[in-house]
Design goal:
The strands form 2 sheets. This protein has a 5-stranded mixed β-sheet. A two-stranded antiparallel ribbon has the order 1-3. With 490 residues, the protein is an alpha+beta fold. The relative contact order is 0.06. Helix content is 74%, strand content 8%. It folds into 3 domains: 226 residues; 79 residues; 144 residues, Heat Shock Protein 90, CATH 3.30.565.10.
Length: 490
């Protein structure tokens, strides 16, 4: 049969390796995209901060020029307020360079009117990209702009000093105005360069990160394709095997047809035998029941007579035996399993401990302490599978009915019996419920129809105790917890 070249090449490809590569590639894409978004968001925050820087600087110079000609103190205060915006950003830059405390850096950015949610991104980008070419150049432009801001501040202080002394001449006003205009033009150039450098850098980063994304997508696509081809190969091989198996089956079917005919005759004969045995067993039992009914009715007038007692006993025993024959098949598998169980010694403490560990998480969530009081040296050889299921269900029931309390497990054993109990400090067990389970255990058949009226856990325990020929007792106060005691023979 022809097989494509690629399918042959991946014949021994390890599927697990492909899945690991796909997982790692997807994880890499998630991490890369996370940092892509973080970088772009941080650059946006710097561009937004630059706009506040630029606007604050221009408004500060405008108010300073107005103050220069009007000597209005309100304009001076507005000038100081607006100039604090670029000064705050400059303080943040110097604090970042000098590795000062984060809160000092954030105070500088806050003074620069940067959004509170952008502060961490501004700091992160500066710390991690300060040596990257585009950002290093942008920081240099920022530094040069801060120098011009300091010059503006010095001019403002000089204007304030001369206005206070009233010795500011018109020529000086014109010279100051010319200086402020020159500084403003230079600041505009620096601010534009800062924004352009950030824009160029983000475009470069975006380009390279896009290439990386494409690289990992191609890896994922390649691995998925290899996986797909391997699956195709398996399907082709399966189809070939199915075809071969069909040919074998056709031959086998012919043989089975004859075998079926022979078996049908044999099964028919066995059904007749089983029907005969069933009839032979039930018919005498039913007849005995009828006789018992008749004898009870005839001897009922004298209820104290020995004949009536014997008749009642015969009726009761024969009725139970008749009912037993109907459920014998249903329980046969359970009895066979128990019969084949090989007795061996095991640690009863460790068995209970494993169940405690299983319920430990849910117990902790309900603030329940489970105490295992069983002696660690105690050994038992009663059917470990059945005992394990019983402990499991009793613990589960105790935890369901307990909150903010404790559960204790105790056990004793001797040469003949194993006795263990589970005591909880929960809501307690209603007397009607105790009566129900007690009656359910004493009279199994008559209670089967109401099995679903209550939880199945304790019903399961009762059925398992039947196999072990054990006993169960319930004890509960008024909302003061429940004690369930199990007694089984070794």
């Amino acid at each position: 049969m022809f097989k494509p070249f690629f399918i042959k090449k991946i014949k021994h490809t390890d599927i697990h390796i492909l899945l690991v590569i796909i997982f790692m590639s997807c994880l890499s894409i998630i991490i890369i995209n996370f940092y892509t978004i973080k970088i772009l968001s941080s650059c946006r925050a710097y561009v937004n901060g630059e706009s506040h820087y630029s606007k604050g600087q221009k408004d500060a110079i405008r108010h300073l020029i107005t103050y220069l000609y009007t000597e209005n103190n309100a304009q001076w205060q507005l000038y100081k307020t607006e100039l604090n915006v670029p000064i705050g950003d400059g303080n943040a830059r110097r604090a970042l360079i000098n590795n000062q405390k984060i809160e000092i850096i954030k105070d500088g950015f806050r003074a620069g009117r940067n959004h509170e949610e952008d502060l961490d991104d501004l700091i992160w980008l500066f710390i991690n990209f300060k040596d990257v070419s585009f950002f290093k150049k942008a920081i240099n432009e920022w530094n040069q702009a801060d120098i011009l801001i300091n010059q503006t501040n010095a001019i403002g202080l000089e204007i304030k000093r001369k206005i206070k002394k009233s010795n500011l001449s018109p020529d000086e006003q014109r010279n100051i105005l010319s200086s402020l205009s020159d500084i403003s033009d230079k600041l505009t150039v620096r601010e534009r360069n800062f924004s352009n450098l950030l824009g160029e850098g983000t475009r470069i980063i975006k380009f390279y990160l896009t290439l990386v994304n494409i690289f990992f997508v191609l890896i994922i696509f390649s691995c998925v394709s290899l996986y797909y081809l391997k699956m195709i190969r398996r399907i082709l091989l399966s189809k070939q095997k199915i075809k071969e198996n069909n040919q074998q089956l056709q031959s086998t079917i012919k043989d089975l047809e004859q075998t079926k005919e022979d078996l049908s005759k044999e099964i028919f004969q066995q059904k007749k035998i089983i029907g005969t045995i069933s009839h032979d067993i039930k018919s005498p039992l039913k007849y005995i029941v009828l006789i018992g009914n008749y004898l009870c009715a005839e001897t009922q007038k004298d209820s104290s007579s020995i004949s009536h007692k014997y008749a009642s006993s015969i009726l009761k025993s024969s009725s139970q035996l008749y009912e037993f024959t109907k459920v014998l098949v249903e329980y046969s598998n359970i009895y066979i399993e128990d019969k084949n169980h090989k007795k061996r010694n095991y640690s009863f403490y460790y068995l209970a401990h494993k169940k405690v560990e299983l319920f430990k998480e849910i117990a902790n969530s309900k603030n329940i302490i489970i105490i295992n009081n069983i002696d660690k040296k105690m050994l038992c050889h009663t059917n470990i599978n059945i005992i394990s299921i019983i402990i499991h269900n009793l613990l589960d029931n105790a935890i369901k009915n307990t909150n903010d309390g404790q559960i204790e497990i105790n056990a004793t054993t001797d040469d003949e019996k194993l006795i263990f109990s589970i005591k909880d400090s929960g809501v307690g067990m209603d007397s009607n419920l105790i009566e129900y389970y007690t009656n359910r255990f004493k009279n199994k058949e008559s209670e089967k129809l109401i099995l679903n009226n209550f939880g199945v856990g304790l019903h399961f325990v009762l059925e398992l105790l039947i196999i072990l020929k054990g006993n169960i007792t319930f004890s509960s106060g008024d909302k003061k917890g429940t004690l369930v005691t199990i007694e089984v023979n070794h």
